[in-house]
């Protein structure tokens, strides 16, 4: 039965690629699932067998120890991330406003008719 080797949520792409590469080089049989379009699914690397899981965990631990020794880039601030993805911010704000409008419309109509 498949087991989760490594969750990919909030993992930098460089680290995820390094882990996948290390697993492939070690011959660990694994597969990847994505979070999907809406981010509702589990993004992770899965081991197909128990022996692959045990070997995969060893490989991942070694890989992460190596990555911890490398210099890290500073994390982007909220302002920097918003400047990098203005369309995502705009669409999120519009979606929130749309949900609020639909949710509050019955109440606003009830008070407007009196």
UniProtKB/TrEMBL annotation:
<keyword id="KW-0472">Membrane</keyword>
<dbReference type="InterPro" id="IPR046162">
    <property type="entry name" value="DUF6164"/>
</dbReference>
<dbReference type="Pfam" id="PF19661">
    <property type="entry name" value="DUF6164"/>
</dbReference>
<keyword id="KW-0812">Transmembrane</keyword>
<protein>
    <submittedName>
        <fullName>DUF6164 family protein</fullName>
    </submittedName>
</protein>
<keyword id="KW-1133">Transmembrane helix</keyword>
<feature type="transmembrane region" description="Helical">
    <location>
        <begin position="89"/>
        <end position="112"/>
    </location>
</feature>
């Amino acid at each position: 039965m498949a087991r989760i080797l490594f969750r990919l949520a909030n993992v930098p792409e460089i680290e995820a690629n390094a882990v996948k590469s290390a697993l492939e080089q070690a011959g660990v049989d694994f597969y990847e699932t994505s979070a999907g379009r809406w981010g509702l699914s589990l993004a992770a690397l899965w081991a197909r067998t128990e022996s692959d899981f045990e070997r995969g965990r060893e490989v991942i631990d070694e890989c992460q120890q190596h990555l911890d020794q490398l210099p890290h880039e500073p994390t982007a601030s909220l302002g920097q991330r918003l400047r990098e993805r203005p369309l995502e911010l705009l669409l999120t704000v519009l979606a929130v406003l749309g949900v609020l409008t639909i949710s509050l419309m019955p109440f606003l109509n009830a008070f407007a008719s009196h």
